[in-house]
Amino acid sequence: MTTLDILDRLQKDALRDRELRKHLLATRSEKDPLTVFCCLCRSFGYELYEMDLISAGEDFYAEMRRSTNGGGENSPKLEGEDDFYELLMASLQEAEKAAEK
C-alpha cells in the first residue's frame, strides 16, 4: 500500500469517525505535529512515517512541475501543493466545522 493509499484510507475513516478526526486535528497544536501525527496514525493501524509523508508530497509536486511548461524552471510555484499533512488537516477541519453545525 502506498503512502497516498494510506492517506486516502485515513481521510475516509476520519471523515466518518469524529473521534479519530478530533485526535488527528489535535496534532496541529503539537510542538512537532508531523511526528505526533505519524505516531498517532501508527497507533490506529495506519503505517505512516514522517519521511514517507514528506517524500510522497515532494514526489507528487515534482511530477506536477514536470507536467507543466515542460517542467523547466519557469514552471509556476504551487504553494502548499506538496504538504499532504496540511491538505489532510484542511479537509478534516472543514468536516469538523460541518459537523458542529
In a nutshell, what does this entry contain?
The chain is mostly helical.
Name the descriptors:
single chain, mainly alpha, 5 helices, 101 residues
Provide a descriptive summary of the structure in words.
By secondary structure, the protein is an all-alpha fold. The chain has one domain (about 5-100). It has five helices and no strands. Helix 1 (about 5-15) crosses helix 2 and helix 1 runs parallel beside helix 5. The chain is globular and about 40 Å long. The termini are far apart.
Q: N-to-C SSE series?
A: HHHHH
Mean pLDDT: 83
The helix content, as a percent range, equals 55-70%
Return the domain count: 1
Shape: globular
By DSSP, the count of extended strands is: 0
Class by helix and strand content? mainly alpha
| Poorly predicted tracts of residues | none
Q: Compute the gyration radius: what is it?
A: 15 Å
